[in-house]
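General statements about sequence and structure are easier to judge against a single worked case. For one protein, we set the task of working out the structure tokens from the amino acid sequence alone. The sequence in question and its structure tokens are set out directly beneath this paragraph.
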Amino acid sequence: MSYHIRGGLRGINLDANENLTNALFCLKLEYEDDGTYFDGNIKRQYWRSNLDNVTRSFTYRYDGASRVKAGIYLGKGTENYTLADVTYDNNGNIKKLIRNGLIANNTFGIVDNLSYTYNANSNKILKVDDISNVTVVLQMLRVMIILIIARWFV
């Protein structure tokens, strides 16, 4: 592992020049490498597994308050796990979030199109609505997987 001068993680299983290697898994995080961010925000992350040897990445965008606005994904072929259109209210609460992912049969599209509702003049969340076109079966499968994972680690 290597660390940033400010103590943040730079990467896992990188070579001496901080490039990705052929390890089982390797990760590289960029902060202000291109002069964009000097506030500790991660500009870009790259990772690769030797299972398929494909380099994947997210490039992040932030607003003036250092809140993530988008995560642009690059990967293999038509893979699309982009996080887009994250908006916030005046209290800093998420109002809207759109996330892409695997729908079925190597088809990618919107899996989450979330809008958040909070109590008036409060940070207490009332509900989250998902208006994505993902079928209930896939949504239930995601919930079941999360519950199984949670149960496994308890």
Remarks:
- Residues 136-152 form the longest helix (17 residues).
- The mean pLDDT is 81.
- DSSP finds one helix and ten strands in the chain.
